[in-house]
Write a structure and sequence with these properties.
The chain is an alpha+beta fold. The protein has 10 helices and 4 strands.
Amino acid sequence: MLKFYFNGSPNPTKVALFLEEAGLAYEPVKIDTRTGEQFTPDYLKINPNAKVPAVDDNGTIVFDSNAILLYLAEKTGKFLPANRAELLSWLMFVATGVGPYSGQAVHFKHFAPKDQNHDYAHNRYQYETDRHYRILDGHLKGRRYMVGDDYSIVDMALWGWARMVPFKLGDDAFARYPNVKRLIDEIAARPAAARAIALKDKFTFKAEMDDEARRNMFGHMTTKVA
C-alpha cells in the first residue's frame, strides 16, 4: 500500500486531496515538523530535503507535492488535462511561484522575530504573492478550471495554498481575487476536500510554536551561513 508522509500544511493537504479524489488506498504516516520528525534517519531516506509530503509507492519514492501530483495522475490516468503544455506551465507556476512566495509571505507575516525589522522582506513577499494571485485571477476569468474544461491536478495544487489567502494577505484579500475565490469555494465543497483537511485530525501534532518548534522549522535562526 502507498505510504503518504504528511502533516496538515498546504503542500501535503493538496496531495491528500488527490488521494481522496482518486479513491486510492493509502497509509498516512504523520511527520511532525515541529518536533523534528523530518530529520530522523529513516525519513531522510525518503526525502533528503527533510520536507513533507512524500510518498512511498511500493518502493517508488516521490517527494515534492507537485511531483507527487503529477506522478499519481500519470499512474492512475486521473485528473490529467489533455493539453500537456498548459498543464506543465500552470503546474510549474504553482510549484515555483505560488507555493514559495506564499510560504515566505506567511513566514514574514506571522513567524519572523518581532524584535527585528523585516519591513523590506515582508513587503517583497506580500507584493509577489499578490502579483501571483492577480495573474491567476485574470487567467480564471471566464474559465471554470485552470486548464481546459475539467478539474485537474493544477486546481488541486492551487487549492492547497489558495484556500489560505486570508492568512497570507489579510482577512479581506479574497475580495481582490473573485475568480480564484470562486474556484476555491467549488473545490472546498467537494467531499474529498473535507476528508483531506480532516486527515490531520486523526493524529496528534505539536500545536505550540515554541523554541523547539522554531529550531526544527527555521534552521536559519540558529545557523548563520554567511
